[in-house]
Specification:
single chain; 73 residues; mainly beta; Immunoglobulin-like; four-stranded antiparallel sheet; three-stranded antiparallel sheet; 0% helix; globular; transcription; RNA binding; Trp_RNA-bd_attenuator_dom; RNA-binding
């Protein structure tokens, strides 16, 4: 796999979930992490990870810019 992209996730509340989704014909959850307020996770897309789902209030920095996720109301 060529150079892969990193993203940075900074939780803005306790209990932010970061869920990795598989690459291939069947998309499945393969890994999850729970972050508390202020915790930072640096994640990378790999040959096994094609997508990430972030649940909760967080700042997400990518090469495409900064995105803010919100808490479900």
């Amino acid at each position: 796999m060529a150079q892969t992209e990193y993203i940075v996730i900074r939780a803005e509340e306790d209990g932010v979930n970061v869920i990795g989704l598989t690459r291939g014909t069947d998309t499945k959850f393969h890994h999850s992490e729970k972050l508390d307020c202020g915790e930072v996770m640096v994640a990378q897309f790999t040959e096994h990870t094609s997508a990430m789902k972030i649940r909760g209030k967080a700042e997400i920095q990518t090469t495409h810019g900064t995105i803010f996720s919100e808490t479900k109301k």
